[in-house]
Amino acid sequence: MEVYLDNSATTRCFDEAARLMYKIMCEDYGNPSSLHHKGVEAEKYLRYARETLAGLMKVNDKEILFTSGGTESDNIALIGAAMANHRRGRHLITTAIEHPAILQTMAYLENQGFEVTYLPVDGQGRISLTDLEKAIRPDTILVSIMHTNNEIGSVQPIGEAGALIKKINPGTLFHVDAVQGFGKCRIYPSRMHVDMLSVSAHKIHGPKGVGFLYLKDGAKVSPIMYGGGQQKGMRSGTENVPGIAGMAKAAELVYEHLEQDVDRMYGLRQMLIDGAEGIEQTRINGCPGREGAAHIVSLSVRGVRSEVLLHALEEKGIYVSAGSACSSNKPQASATLRAIGVDKDLLDATVRFSISVFTTEEEIQYTIQVLKETVPMLRRYTRR
Amino acid sequence: MCRAFLIKYAEIGIKGKNRYLFENALVQQIKYALKKCDGQFSVRKTDGRIYAEAEGDFDYEDAVARLQKVFGISAICPMVYVEDEGFESLGRMVVDYVGRTYPDRNRTFKVAARRARKSYPLDSMEMNAELGGLILDAYPEMRVDVHNPEIVIHVEVRDRIYVYSAVIPGPGGMPVGTGGKAMLLLSGGIDSPVAGWMIAKRGVKIDAVYFHAPPYTSERAKQKVVDLAAKVAAYAGPVYLHVINFTEIQLYIYDKCPHDELTIIMRRYMMRIAEHIARETECLGLITGESIGQVASQTMQSLMATDEVCGLPVYRPLIGFDKMDIVDISEKIGTYETSIQPYEDCCTIFVAKHPVTKPNVSVIRRHEHNLDEKIDELVRKALADDEVIVVR
After folding, report:
1. Of the candidates B214, B349, B351, which has its C-beta nearest A315's C-beta?
2. Closest-CA distance of chain B to residue A328, Å
3. Strands B286-287 and B314-315, how do they pair?
4. Measured between beta carbons, which residues in chain A are less than 8 angstroms from residue B217?
């Protein structure tokens, strides 16, 4: 039995999205900037994608900027906002548990002379609004907070944070990395006072190498790539038409029965959590229940190295992710797990299960059963 | 411009009646190395030298890089040649050669002619003088120095006339295949590929064995070992890599033996298994990357304990090397980058915090008896499931 539980790393592409992409690559392969019919045809796909994605988030079509994925969206948001606003201020705010696409970009901006405040999180991986309130200053030009954490699935109070930021400093831009959150709940940027929001297609059953940035009309952001002036000069480069269309199709399908699917995923997640808690000396990291994301379970198993558990599960056909990229030569414990105060012994004993709409109850039951057999076996053999 | 290579060899020259065996092996190795190069070559042995001549266009850089990995070659000389159309035409060609090869002409030189075909009208001394004069006329900045020249322009008169001056160092050593075959214990670390390379350099063909311990070691760790074997194979020719699943043996030892002796007992079983495969595949010895005192299992006491279980000679070419010296070689032969990829190997997964450093052989033997019930069966099973990967 093959059980894919690494959907936070990437997801299986929807057949319908893949078929649409194949058609575009082989038949409607024109360059949307070309003046002839082939170009017009290709441009229609871009319009379809823009309208679809904008419609799902109740924003204006022209506020959708196509990119190569989550990392590029984050880079445009952070570097673009910093470059465009550095005369007004040089202070940025983010959280301690962001994805490397944010943390490494922030580190780059620090080297460029910007000052960054990293908000701490509580034991469940959530920031406090009081900390945020205290951190905002007159020279704060940007706040970037992730919607859903990729390792533990904690969800941040984006709406409240947005309202707070705009109340204290209306000039501060608010960016949200929603790579793990989009497609797991309905996100309406304008109601949450969000100016920029990053999304990646391959996390929602779309193709790899494509994503978008919601960029609020009027938000002052500079481009970071220059060239042929596509997408109103904000992101030069011929648009990835098949990828963009595939992404829109995937988003459409994900939203079709969003509430039912998410309900079902919460059920599967709870089943997995209950099953895992039946094993001695384990710990679920992040927010339990409906406050956390529907698709992520972070499990620490005392006395079992995550890489070993990962390979042992792999032998049974179950694919998961090591909660923290850690190895014998380069111990790099996860920043997120450390920030929520996970025990030092457990940092390297944490795996992440992430489910999708394709996951079945049978697969979860099988996974629980394999865990119950494998963990005691692995615990017998540890470094003494 | 280069049309052929003169290949010089070092130690083969001093061999006696077996010399032809070594030369033939070297010719074979050169042919094998150049087969993968873009271009057609004819490799032949004449007058105690080996020539590799290109038939038509070829990738010069690639050919040199490949020849530099053929053990037994001490130097590679890129040559140009002309048909003998009289001395005047030779003179023009030599002047042209010097002009093109040395754009910076403010240097000292001499001509070293050699007349293998004695019927040539000029003798070698006359050729040296005449050709030297022509070069000086063409490039007045150049100066002759017969004792310590910066450039030596060799001119050899055979059926054709060959000219060369550059000498590219080869790797030295002996042609692979002249020294039998040995089984390398390849771990994925820095040392073992270097050890294999060093023994291969003495003309020995290399096969390898890797102990895999899923799920404790990953598929990527195994891929890393295959990649390392490929780096060794670039010098030593095809490597038959035996992948042995060691998990059950390791867990059984863990269950039955004192934990601080785990590594040493494990290594004794690795040696036994490696010896078994070595004998079956006609290897004449084992090779390990051990160096005295580097880790607990490489103290003299530990080496004695692992050595005693093996009836074949165990070659440890790095035994007296410092780590830095080993790293230097691994960087030179291109294995370092691969070796430092951080995937755990089976030697480190259950290692005790304080393993024994001075094992007592009789104590180890006694504790090994704890394994009597099942170990033979487990070893037999591991050997039966041997996965052989041919790495080229």
Report:
1. B214
2. 6
3. parallel
4. 311
Catalytic residue among A13, A26, A185, A326: A326
pTM: 0.82
Res A332: pLDDT? 64
Structural domains of chain A, ranges and CATH numbers in brackets: 3-10+257-380 (3.90.1150.10), 15-256 (3.40.640.10)
Q: Which of A310, A329, A382 lies closest to B342 in CB terms?
A: A329
Would you tell me how many other CB atoms lie within 10 Å of the CB of residue A68?
A: 19
Burial A360-372 (b: 16+ CB within 10 A, else e): eeebbebbbebbe
pLDDT tens per residue, range B204-230: 999 999 999 988 888 888 999 999 999
Amino acid letter, residue A337? L
- Could you give the residue ranges of the DSSP H alpha helices within A3-128? 15-26, 37-57, 70-75, 81-85, 100-111
CA distance B191 to chain A (A): 16
Distance (Å, whole) CA B305 – CA B263 = 11
- Whether B118 maps to a domain, the answer reads yes
- The residue of chain B nearest to residue A312, with distances taken between CA atoms, is B215
- Residues 6 or more apart whose CB falls under 8 angstroms from that of A332 comprise A324, A325, A326
Looking at the fold, whether B313 and B227 belong to one and the same domain comes out as yes
- The span from the CA of B100 to the CA of A62, in Å, is 62
Rounded CA separation A235/A232 (Å): 7
Q: Does one domain contain both B119 and B21?
A: yes
Q: Which is nearest to B166 in space by CA: B156, B155, B153, B157? A: B153
- Among A308, A327, A384, whose Cβ lies nearest the Cβ of B215? A308
Q: Which of B12, B65, B79 is nearest to B37 (CA)?
A: B65
Are B124 and B199 found together in one domain? no
Inter-chain contact B344–A384, Cβ cutoff 8 Å?
Answer: no
DSSP state of A43: H
Interface test with A, best of B218, B249, B252 (most A CBs within 10 A): B218
Q: How distant is the Cα of A1 from the closest Cα of chain B, in angstroms?
A: 18
Whether the ω angle into residue B215 lies within 30 degrees of 0, i.e. cis, is: yes
Q: Cα–Cα distance between A368 and A358 in angstroms, integer? A: 17
CATH number of the domain where residue B64 is located: 3.30.2130.30
Q: How far is A232 from chain B (nearest CA, A)?
A: 44
Checking if the pLDDT of B47 tops 80, the result is no
Question: Would you call B352 an interface residue with chain A, using a CB distance cutoff of 8 Å?
Answer: yes
Q: What was the pLDDT predicted at B320?
A: 95
Q: Is residue B176 part of a domain?
A: no
Report how many Cβ contacts below 8 Å link chain A to chain B: 39
Give me the residue from A308, A310, A327 closest to B343, CB to CB. Answer: A327
Integer Cα distance of B286 and A317 in angstroms: 37
Residues of B in contact with A311 (CB under 8 A): 214-219
Same domain? For B33 and B131 the reply is yes
pLDDT score for A328:
39
Residue A326 known to be catalytic: yes
Same domain, yes or no: B284 and B208:
yes
Q: Give the separation between CA B374 and CA B365, rounded to whole angstroms.
A: 16
Are the C-beta atoms of residues B29 and B237 closer than 8 Å to each other?
A: yes
Beta bridge pairs of residue B41: B54
For residue B247, what is the nearest residue in chain A, using CA coordinates? Answer: A381
List, for residues A77-118, the tens digit of each pLDDT value. 999 999 999 999 999 999 999 999 999 999 999 999 999 999
Q: What is the pLDDT of residue A13?
A: 97
CA distance A326 to A337: 12
Tokens of A376: 């005691």
Pairwise CB contact (< 8 Å): B215 & A314: yes
Instruction: Give the one of B214, B255, B350 whose C-beta lies nearest to A311's C-beta.
Output: B214
Judged by a CB distance cut-off of 8 A, whether residue B220 touches chain A is no
Domain region containing B250: 181-391
> Are A381 and B342 within 8 A, CB to CB?
no
